[in-house]
Structure formats: structure tokens, C-alpha cells
């Protein structure tokens, strides 16, 4: 059984501090192997083609009276989950003012004095708080980013003392933002369930019904003098259920793998970027697929994004839904709780799609 590590293997260095001190080079600890670097073997010609982007889906007619419009939106979501694992949503019902306020409140936090932020320094035990690395492998090549990780659900894990008290509006804004995103995630879960040919609550119930988990990781990507050598976040698929990303709509950075190409996502104004996580890939028996993605950094501009993770209850086994299994399509994955899976990921750090693929049942 994997055991959690309580301390980081090396002293933590804040990337924001490095950024302020680095003029034309970066420390070796952040230089990726040539095969993993952006702009070398991995940025496709798609990257500069405005016509290539993950699907943008307008949810505006989803709850209207026009059944054809509803069916079209449902089909667009189904195709995106099967073909891309990623899509953007607009007219989603979350206030644009709240979205802007959430992003800019967190930008303000990351520009506060270091001694203020250090009060919230995290550990590998929960990752909750202010952090600068993922995984506990000593000597690992690190990503060019700092972050803040917080729990929202279940309420037993929600600890305001672990949330920043400054800027003063931070806790209030995240409370409202979290409430809105839980509602929006729940609506999308029903659509995913119906698109699998199931009753609308089946996928949500497999997540634990009213006892789902939710947390948020705020990403801060400082300016980097050598962006071609490093990544803000290494290639990975999200270990949880479904992710709602509020991107920095002024600075592109998210890249999604499509076949052998890395496609840079052009964020639509006031859109959320939604992606399928490993747990929904398991539940759907790989009908819906979590997809590798990564983040590139910028030499001229910092970038702030908010990733809201909608996850299963942590201690119930997640396995392919029985309704989707046939003799021709047997279960691809054994049961595993999200707690077990998350710990497995934390010990290893981001590693593409190898995490979920390694869990497949022997055939």
C-alpha cells in the first residue's frame, strides 16, 4: 500500500522568486528533456492556425423549449467527450463578473509579499495551500509554476483557515465561485450520463451522489526567460472526474494533445474549458476519454488560471458502470477508490496518460 509523504524531499523554491531574479537563463532543475520541450518536436502547424481549436459549445438553448436545439447541444457535448476529451462552454449561466473577480482576486494574492504567502505553504500530505511542486521524487525536473490548492467539498474538508485571508475578498469570492461551479458541474454530469444512454443521475450517483468532492488549484505561471526549455505544467491527464478551467483569456498557454500534435487552445471570452478526467474515463469504460494536456509559459507575460475539479467521493470504488458492459466490451479497469488513485498519482507526479493506462485490467 502506498504511504503518503509528509515533507518535501528538498527545500522549496518559489518560481515567482526565480522569475524575478532570472534574466536570460533558468536553473537546470526546470529544463525539460529535449523530447518534452515545446517548440522542438511537439508544436504542430496547428498551433498557429486559428481554425483549429477544441470545440466551443453554446449552452444557451439547453434548457429552452426547442427540442432540436437541445438535441444538437447534447450531440456536440457527446462528440467532444468522445473525440477530444476537451471543450469550451459559453452561455453557461455563471456570472461574467464573478469569473473576472475570481481570476483577478487570485492574481492579487500571488502579487502579495512572500511572507504573507508563505504562511500558507503546503506539504505533500494534502497539497492544500501554497505550493511550487507536484510529486515527491527527489531530484525531479520541476515545472515553471506556483499554485494554491484548496478543498471545497465535502464540507468536512473545507477549512477556511487553509484559505488565504488576504486579499480580504478571497474567501467570499471563492465560496460563491465554488457554489456556482458545483451547480454547473452537476448539470454537465447529467448530460454525460444521458449521452451514454443512461438515466441522468447514474454517473453522478456513481460519484457518490450528494457526497461528491470538489477542490480548486489556482495556477500562477510567472514570466520565463527561456520558455522553449521548460513547461508550466508537464503533460498529464487529470486524475479526477471533470475539470472546469477558467483560463487567462489574455494569455494562451494550455495545450491539448490530439493524435501526435499539441494544439494550443485559444480561450474564448468568458468561457470555461471543460475536460474529462481519469475517473470518468474509468466509469464510461473509455467511451469518454481523459486527454493529455500541458501548459507552456511566456517570456513577456505572467498567466493565472483556475482549475476546479469535480471528483468522486474519495472512499468509494470507481469502476466501469455495469450498464455499459457486454461480453464484447468487458470492464477495462479494476475498482479503485479515488483516494487510492490520487495517492498513486501524487507519489509519481505528472506522467502523461501512463497513470490511468497502467491501471487497465490484464486481458
UniProtKB/TrEMBL annotation:
One of its GO terms (molecular function) is metal ion binding. Residues 211-312 form the Fe2OG dioxygenase domain. It comes from the Eukaryota. The keyword Metal-binding applies. It holds the Pfam family DIOX_N. It catalyses: jasmonate + 2-oxoglutarate + O2 = (1R,2R)-12-hydroxyjasmonate + succinate + CO2. GO terms for biological process: defense response; negative regulation of defense response to insect; regulation of defense response to fungus; regulation of jasmonic acid mediated signaling pathway. Coiled coil: none annotated. Keywords: Dioxygenase, Iron, Jasmonic acid signaling pathway, Metal-binding, Oxidoreductase, Plant defense, Vitamin C. Its cofactor is L-ascorbate; Fe(2+). The keyword Iron applies. Belongs to the iron/ascorbate-dependent oxidoreductase family. This is Fe2OG dioxygenase domain-containing protein. It comes from Pisum sativum (Garden pea). The lineage of its organism: Eukaryota, Viridiplantae, Streptophyta, Embryophyta, Tracheophyta.
Amino acid at each position: 500500500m502506498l504511504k503518503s509523504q509528509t515533507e518535501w524531499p528538498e527545500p522549496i523554491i518559489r518560481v515567482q522568486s526565480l522569475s524575478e531574479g532570472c534574466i536570460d537563463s533558468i536553473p537546470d532543475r526546470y529544463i525539460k528533456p529535449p523530447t518534452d520541450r515545446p517548440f522542438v518536436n511537439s508544436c504542430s502547424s496547428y498551433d498557429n492556425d486559428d481554425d483549429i481549436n477544441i470545440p466551443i459549445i453554446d449552452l444557451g438553448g439547453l434548457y429552452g423549449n426547442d427540442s432540436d436545439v437541445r438535441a444538437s447541444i447534447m450531440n456536440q457535448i457527446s462528440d467532444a467527450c468522445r473525440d477530444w476529451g476537451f471543450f469550451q462552454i459559453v452561455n453557461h449561466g455563471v456570472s461574467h463578473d464573478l469569473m473576472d473577480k475570481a481570476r483577478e482576486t487570485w492574481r492579487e494574492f500571488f502579487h502579495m509579499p512572500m511572507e504573507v504567502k508563505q504562511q500558507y505553504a503546503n506539504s505533500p500530505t494534502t497539497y492544500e495551500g501554497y505550493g511550487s511542486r507536484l510529486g515527491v521524487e527527489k531530484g525531479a525536473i520541476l515545472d515553471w509554476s506556483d499554485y494554491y490548492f484548496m478543498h471545497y467539498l465535502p464540507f468536512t474538508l473545507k477549512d477556511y483557515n487553509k484559505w488565504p485571508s488576504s486579499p480580504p475578498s478571497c474567501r467570499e469570492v471563492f465560496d460563491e465561485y465554488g457554489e456556482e461551479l458545483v451547480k454547473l458541474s452537476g448539470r454537465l454530469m447529467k448530460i454525460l450520463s444521458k449521452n451514454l444512454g443512461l438515466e441522468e443521475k447514474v454517473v453522478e450517483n456513481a460519484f457518490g451522489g450528494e457526497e461528491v468532492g470538489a477542490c480548486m488549484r489556482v495556477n500562477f505561471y510567472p514570466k520565463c526567460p527561456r520558455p522553449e526549455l521548460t513547461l508550466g505544467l508537464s503533460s498529464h491527464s487529470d486524475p479526477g472526474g471533470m475539470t472546469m478551467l477558467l483560463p487567462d483569456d489574455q494569455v494562451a498557454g494550455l495545450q491539448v494533445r490530439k493524435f501526435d500534435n499539441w494544439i494550443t487552445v485559444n480561450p474564448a471570452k468568458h468561457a470555461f474549458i471543460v475536460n474529462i478526467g481519469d475517473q470518468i474515463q474509468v466509469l464510461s469504460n473509455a467511451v469518454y476519454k481523459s486527454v493529455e494536456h500541458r501548459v507552456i509559459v511566456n517570456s513577456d507575460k505572467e498567466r493565472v488560471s483556475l482549475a476546479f475539479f469535480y471528483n468522486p467521493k474519495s472512499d468509494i470504488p470507481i469502476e466501469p458502470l455495469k450498464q455499459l458492459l457486454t461480453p464484447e466490451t468487458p470492464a477495462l479497469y479494476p475498482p479503485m477508490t479515488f483516494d487510492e488513485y490520487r495517492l498513486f498519482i501524487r507519489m509519481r507526479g505528472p506522467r502523461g496518460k501512463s497513470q490511468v493506462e497502467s491501471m487497465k485490467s490484464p486481458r
